[in-house]
């Protein structure tokens, strides 16, 4: 079993002020300083529906990223999820060992320092991945870690309202684009909801590596609980936006499947995770996606009248096969699926 950064590998390196060579990115891929002062929009979902719909669509078109508050996910569910995830990564390595796996096809697992593209570099992060179908079943929960003892209960109480928020945001986007409100309900969101709990231990030299390199997401929509430690950056006009933590907010962004389904009206934007040398950072990313056999293509309502289809229809299984082959950079993914 490869050592977890949070258990010994990264901690030992950090204590010695050394960054192992496998984590050092080539000079042209290292994190340059951000110079932009642009901030992500913060949208209050409790406002008038017409105003909220307009704000969500405009933010999605302009930046592909925004933050939402007053979103309906109980604050207690958010705080409990953050706390139990930090508690999980704080456990001794031997207690986490049984859940560790390098098998990428395993939906529930703990893994570390994934290889970056084909260059051999690794990300400075550990990740706990949990999969959940709906409604949540007892069988599903038995595949989640049984330690800490309250993890399963807390995760379910977080999964359910967070998925509900994702569905509501998709309804707002559908209404704003002239689609029927439930366009994305059904097959397009019938797959498992995946949660990645990303843990970034203190890094001995953040200037040489990244927690996650620039990438676009593979799913429909992502909801990120980023905690109170800065780390997320979003690509914007050739620079990087620092996403400042907002209390009780979710950061929302679109996956490439949503870009295909909306015929390019909404964009999947590259983002990355920075590291720091002082404190650990833990974030909780919730991904909504279709089942593997679902066919995803541009909505008929968004094609025609001088607006031809920009992307070919593809099953999610085929999309994932190609996504993993070409890498997660936006240019590569777009080239693979654009007509």
Automatic annotation (TrEMBL):
<keyword id="KW-0479">Metal-binding</keyword>
<dbReference type="InterPro" id="IPR027443">
    <property type="entry name" value="IPNS-like_sf"/>
</dbReference>
<dbReference type="Pfam" id="PF03171">
    <property type="entry name" value="2OG-FeII_Oxy"/>
</dbReference>
<keyword id="KW-0560">Oxidoreductase</keyword>
<feature type="domain" description="Fe2OG dioxygenase">
    <location>
        <begin position="189"/>
        <end position="290"/>
    </location>
</feature>
<dbReference type="GO" id="GO:0046872">
    <property type="term" value="F:metal ion binding"/>
</dbReference>
<comment type="similarity">
    <text>Belongs to the iron/ascorbate-dependent oxidoreductase family.</text>
</comment>
<dbReference type="InterPro" id="IPR050295">
    <property type="entry name" value="Plant_2OG-oxidoreductases"/>
</dbReference>
<dbReference type="GO" id="GO:0016491">
    <property type="term" value="F:oxidoreductase activity"/>
</dbReference>
<dbReference type="InterPro" id="IPR026992">
    <property type="entry name" value="DIOX_N"/>
</dbReference>
<dbReference type="InterPro" id="IPR044861">
    <property type="entry name" value="IPNS-like_FE2OG_OXY"/>
</dbReference>
<protein>
    <recommendedName>
        <fullName>Fe2OG dioxygenase domain-containing protein</fullName>
    </recommendedName>
</protein>
<keyword id="KW-0408">Iron</keyword>
<dbReference type="Pfam" id="PF14226">
    <property type="entry name" value="DIOX_N"/>
</dbReference>
<dbReference type="InterPro" id="IPR005123">
    <property type="entry name" value="Oxoglu/Fe-dep_dioxygenase_dom"/>
</dbReference>
């Amino acid at each position: 079993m490869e050592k977890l950064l949070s258990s010994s590998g990264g901690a030992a390196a950090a204590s010695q002020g050394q960054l192992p060579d496998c984590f050092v990115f080539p000079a042209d891929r290292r994190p340059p300083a951000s110079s932009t002062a642009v901030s992500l929009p913060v949208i209050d979902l409790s406002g008038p529906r017409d105003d909220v719909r307009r704000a969500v669509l405009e933010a999605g078109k302009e930046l592909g990223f925004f933050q939402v508050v007053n979103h309906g996910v109980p604050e207690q569910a958010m705080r409990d999820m953050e706390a139990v995830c930090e508690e999980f990564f704080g456990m001794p390595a031997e207690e986490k060992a049984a859940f560790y796996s390098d098998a990428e096809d395993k939906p529930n697992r703990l893994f570390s320092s994934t290889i970056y593209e084909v260059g051999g570099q690794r990300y400075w992060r550990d990740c706990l991945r949990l999969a959940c179908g709906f409604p949540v079943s007892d069988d599903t929960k038995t595949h989640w870690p049984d330690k800490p003892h309250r993890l399963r209960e807390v995760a379910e109480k977080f999964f359910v309202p967070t998925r509900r928020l994702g569905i509501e945001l998709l309804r707002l986007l559908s209404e704003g684009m002239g689609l029927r409100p439930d366009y994305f309900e059904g097959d397009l969101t019938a797959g498992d909801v995946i949660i990645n709990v990303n843990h970034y231990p203190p890094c001995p030299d953040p200037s040489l590596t990244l927690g996650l390199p620039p990438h676009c997401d593979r799913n429909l929509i992502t909801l990120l609980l980023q905690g109170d430690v800065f780390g997320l950056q979003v690509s914007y006009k050739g620079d990087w936006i620092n996403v400042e933590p907002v209390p009780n907010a979710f950061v929302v962004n679109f996956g490439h499947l949503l870009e295909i389904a909306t015929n390019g009206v909404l964009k999947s934007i590259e983002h990355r995770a920075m590291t720091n040398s002082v404190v650990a950072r833990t974030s909780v990313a919730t991904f909504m996606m279709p089942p593997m056999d679902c066919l995803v293509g541009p909505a008929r309502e968004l094609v025609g009248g001088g607006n031809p289809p920009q992307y070919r229809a593809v099953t999610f299984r085929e999309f994932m096969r190609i996504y993993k082959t070409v890498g997660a950079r936006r240019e590569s993914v777009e080239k693979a699926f654009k007509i």
